[in-house]
UniProtKB/TrEMBL annotation:
Protein name: Ferredoxin
Region (Disordered): 97-123
Example GO molecular function: iron-sulfur cluster binding
2Fe-2S ferredoxin-type domain boundaries: 11-81
Organism name: uncultured Rubrobacteraceae bacterium
Pfam families cross-referenced by the UniProt entry: Fer2 (PF00111)
InterPro entries in alphabetical order: 2Fe-2S_ferredoxin-like_sf, 2Fe-2S_ferredoxin-type, Beta-grasp_dom_sf
Amino acid sequence: MPKLEVEGVGAFDVEDGKRLVLAIEEDASVDILHRCGAYAKCTTCRVEYVEGEPEQMTQAEREILQTKNLAGQVRLSCQILCDHDMKIHVPMTVTSMGLDGPGSKPEPCITPEPEWVEKEKTA
């Protein structure tokens, strides 16, 4: 069972293969944003990795991070599966942004259907 550590919140055992955005919201009880419903469109579910960043990403994640000039800085929790231990920082929450809610409930599986690619190397 992978361990998810959220900075400033704690460490949690999460179901292997669970979508990271759901693990943050349900297991860690963090009010993370997912304004687009977790379809890799808005980048509000972004996380910063402290340890354990995955080597792969979805093509949808790569494209939106490049478009928003966020590649190499953050990852999208809606596009990541909990299949190993990781430590993250969650910069955008409902509370910190003063919004009325996180967005539509994410599906249990990654949406859109994932096409896996190697993450971009940063200098």
